[in-house]
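Hi everyone, sorry if this is the wrong subforum. Our group has a chain we'd like a structural model of before ordering constructs, and none of us has done structure prediction before. Sequence below.
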Amino acid sequence: MVHPNSKANLAPPWPKGTSGNPGGRAKGIQLQTLLIQALTADDNNLAKKVVMAGIEQALDGNAPIWKEIWDRVDGKVKDRLISEVRQIIQVEIPGEIKDDETKGDDDG
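Answer:
Right subforum, don't worry. Here is the predicted structure as tokens:
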């Protein structure tokens, strides 16, 4: 019998290569679809009201409402920027290197 805290219990209960959710996401109208339909109906009047209400909230000091809206609409902005810099640095160390000092190096 396997101990309840064993790592063997972390394995999925289905065979490798088989989906754990073969039916996929539950069918039905998603909340995002309903929001888009409501905001774009009636010549976007509701969307305009929501934007105006958000502007008023921001002017009153509640700017986080915009973060939530834009994160949901445009996707969350990455927390950090990744930059790749490639440089070749040459280091000169005075003195001689003996053969037995380089035996552990992969470069030879």
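For your construct planning: The chain has a mean pLDDT of 77. The radius of gyration is 29 Å.
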